[in-house]
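Suppose you are handed a protein chain with no further information: no name, no annotation, nothing but its sequence. What can you learn? This example shows the usual starting point.
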Amino acid sequence: MTTTTLTLQPRPEIDPSVDHVIQAIVSGASTDATCTTDLAVGPWDFDTRPGYGPGSSMGDVIPTGAPRQGELPRDYREASDDELDARIRAAKATLGDRVVVLGHFYQREEVVRHADYVGDSFQLANAAKAHPEAEAIVFCGVHFMAETADLLSRPEQSVILPNLAAGCSMADMASIDQVEECWEQLADVLGDLDTPDADGLLPVIPVTYMNSSAAIKGFVGRHGGIVCTSSNARTVLEWAFARGRRVLFFPDQHLGRNTAKAMGVPLDRMPMWNPRQPLGGSTAEQLKDSRVILWHGFCSVHRRFSVAQIDKARAEHPGVRVIVHPECPMDVVDAADEAGSTDVIRKAIAAADEPTTFAVGTEINLVQRLAAQFPQHEIFCLDPVVCPCSTMYRIHPGYLAWVLESLVAGEVVNRITVPADVAEPATVALERMLAAKPNGAVK
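A reasonable first move is to predict its three-dimensional structure. Written in structure tokens, the prediction is:
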């Protein structure tokens, strides 16, 4: 029997920095494409303007009154990358265990390298809860994540968001007023929503994705509902179906649809709720027959992925393994080989024993970092246009250095605090979520 030894050709070192990629595109050193050259400048250039900033959500309409960031001191705006890196490290060393820095997978590399914990929203929610000794939690993510950390941390702990303009367009697609109005209209059709039937089941169990405001989480907690993440969405829906006839799922329609479909819920029993239309655009009969009522919301990052991109990847890379996030549209999830949360994607790549080509449908910062971390594989983003999450990209090392050095000086800036009347029911919903352990990928 003859054996053949496979000799791998060494790959050039991959730069994990998306910022470096964008700078190369803008300077003409790269022929790749980006959705906007505005990504090459500091996010402070956009702090005083309404909007989510350059990137995937730049076309989304931001609500009136959305938080804005005050002017970042010039010292941080003009500092070099190396200087900011050194100042962040020095501030962290001075603060020691007094501070814990959390970094979401979608953060830029220049920020993630300073995080004590890196993960998805589910993992970081647990990390925030696990450090009662820290005086401050610096959350390098977006606004709803910092709110969640405040809900789960001790009252005397300060939760800090380095840039207040780092919101989330998906979270903003379901306001508390819209959800309250939806609930009232559903009660007109389905009866008292807080009274169980003869079988002990409520007419509707509200389920909100982690990507929602604390006010929405509070609403869910008051009405017997629960929060979910992309890691545990299936487990949470099973929890909800055991307690109610149907689920109201918001704000991301795609995660709700993809998860419920994988559980066997027919598409014709998943009507869409458009908050701008009476009864959400459905009939009373459709709502009565529903199993999952989907909110008309979406992630602008994951809506960029398409079946055409998957077809192109398969044509150009025979044997490619396509793995996408469940926030992608249903046809994209169906066309992929696998779908799962950011952590599921990361673990799938880490577990691959043989050199593999991966086409990944999720935010570019994570994809670029995975490509650098696992050079034995060929890993690329399904979307050839470099277009990071607009709001995650608002967290820049300049802001991180500023909030950390402010802590060294004894000043807490950009503290995120959830009012007590919202915090109590929201915490109930979050504790239910934390008890619902993830059970694997969506597909």
